[in-house]
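To: structure desk
From: M.T.
Subject: fold request, one chain
Message: Could you run this one when you get a chance? Sequence is below, nothing fancy, just the single chain.
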Amino acid sequence: MNSQVYHYKFYPEVALEDVEDSLMLSALAAECMHGRSLIRLDAKFRLDLKKRSCVIDAGTEVGRNIAKIFTGFITRQFGEEAFKVERTLAREPREEPRQPMEAAV
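Reply: Done. Structure tokens follow.
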């Protein structure tokens, strides 16, 4: 089964601590819409500080909403030219277990 995934890449002038805050706020906003249980079950994302990248699994309505909110936040905060985003297909299931909220350092 394939799932949509959004890959974000941030340019050097972007403060990744602020990106992490925006990602967590996006998950919180989605939790307000969908409830804690669905966030726990359906939200999959990862911020990699070393690679200056973020991945959001948009294979569920929860994931798509997190991606929409996150894109809106970071566009407003940093501008449209501060990052790139691509939609790709990922194969499921994942080999490694993933936590609903995770930040790689």
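Reply (cont.): The longest helix spans residues 16-34. Let me know if you need anything else for the meeting.
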